[in-house]
Amino acid sequence: MLLIYNCDRPEPGDPAFPEALARVNAFADECRRRGAFVAGHPLQGEHTATTVSVRDGKTLITDGPFLETHEHLGGTYILDCRDLDEALELAALCPMAAQGTIEVRPIAGVPDLDHRPSTGI
Questions:
Q1: Which range marks the domain in which residue 48 is found?
Q2: Which residues does the UniProt record annotate as the domain YCII-related (predicted)?
């Protein structure tokens, strides 16, 4: 999984949006060409986040991201790469790497969870 941090992207209507979208689409197309693309999703801004924690049986719900967070997660790509080298190569090709940070992390396979229907969350 490529986790995209600290990458502010232009919104539709911003003059920079078409070029940014073209770069992202070119990256996704390269991942598809290699047969690695599984999914990719941008996230809405961190101001839309709600944080949930449970302490001593009590649920705490807070608007916004976790208070101690210094970086914000802007989106993800799930790729099915041959190996770590290909994942790192694709992470470097990701256009958001030029202004933010791309964390590359394997997805843990968990028996009995891997084939459950998605909740859409």
A1: 2-104
A2: 18-107
